[in-house]
Write a structure and sequence with these properties.
With 278 residues, the chain is of the alpha/beta class. The protein is built from eleven helices and seven strands. 38% of the residues lie in helices and 12% in strands. The structure holds iron/sulfur cluster.
Length: 278
């Protein structure tokens, strides 16, 4: 693909979302050669928590190897900043506080970009239901307070945090000319749908027809409500719409969550009241 783009004078950049375990020196060097602008690694908590949830089939832990690989990426300047996404749910919020402390002591806070992601229902298999029902906060005050407590702690440690909260906006799935390429050569529009064959939109070598999961008709209800969140939301998450309503082209409205967190962020960032009140 790089040869095709280079020979047609098309500038490109790349990003990777990874569990971080296999990010060896040679792979990082390869990514750097291909204009990699973002490496996002997800962590589920401090070592004990992460290694209780994110292990190999044989139970082998992964936390320390991921941290080593982050050092390789930063110490060799393969990338300027590593994005660390802290997945949180009811089970691991307090562990994510400890993880923030650890990351601030282990790395230069200016070279780590923190984002906070609540764990969502991304699979429909019934075997996941009990975990999801017991641990995913849902859109409620508890969820908003968990986000804000982690946000304030990260800010106090010196991490630069985004000043607003948006779940999707115009994400990759809503753009015409963006694709995700899976290791098996399949193309997808949405990261959450990777691996579901029926959602593949093409394959390496096939003709790629530009498409997007952006459905302008969904905005009618948003404008009817005079919703102030439209620039942050753009009709919601296509994956959540599919999982909750069975259709990619359904409205996915998380107004209470967007408003609750953004009001708290305004207070925290501009009124200087480090309050958890929402
Ligand atoms: S929060 Fe709801 S009403 Fe507002 S833009 Fe999003 S989907 Fe539309």
């Amino acid at each position: 693909m790089a040869l095709i783009l280079d020979s047609n004078n098309i500038k490109y950049n790349t990003e990777i979302i990874t569990n971080g375990y296999a990010l060896s020196d040679d792979k990082l060097s390869f990514l750097a050669m291909h204009n990699c602008e973002k490496i996002q690694i997800t962590l589920d908590g401090c070592k004990e928590m992460h290694d209780s949830r994110r292990v190999f089939c044989n139970g082998k832990p992964t936390f320390e190897k991921i941290i080593t690989n982050m050092h390789i990426a930063l110490d060799n300047n393969y990338i300027n900043k590593v994005s660390v996404r802290l997945n949180y749910d009811k089970q691991n919020v307090s562990s994510q506080v400890k993880l923030l402390d650890y990351l601030a002591s282990e790395f230069d806070v200016n070279r780590i970009y923190i984002s906070l992601g609540y764990v969502t229902d991304s699979a429909k298999e019934p075997s996941f239901d009990s975990y999801i029902n017991n641990n995913i906060p849902g859109i409620n005050k508890e969820h908003i307070e968990a986000y804000i407590s982690l946000y304030i702690h990260a800010k106090q440690l010196g991490f630069k945090m985004k000043k607003y909260y948006a779940i999707n906006g115009i994400c990759i799935s809503k753009r015409n000319h963006s694709i995700l390429m899976c290791a098996d050569g399949n193309y997808y529009k949405c990261g959450g749908l990777v691996g579901r064959d029926d959602h593949s939109v093409g394959k390496v070598g096939s003709t790629l027809i530009p498409q997007s999961y952006h459905y302008p008709e969904l905005y009618d209800k948003c404008f009817d409500k005079k919703c102030e969140m439209i620039p942050l939301c753009h009709s919601g998450c296509r994956l959540d719409a599919f999982n909750l309503k069975g259709r990619l082209n359904a409205l996915d409205c998380k107004y209470d969550l967007l408003k609750g967190i953004n009001v708290a962020l305004l207070r925290t960032n501009y009124v200087d009241i480090p309050s958890l009140k929402v």
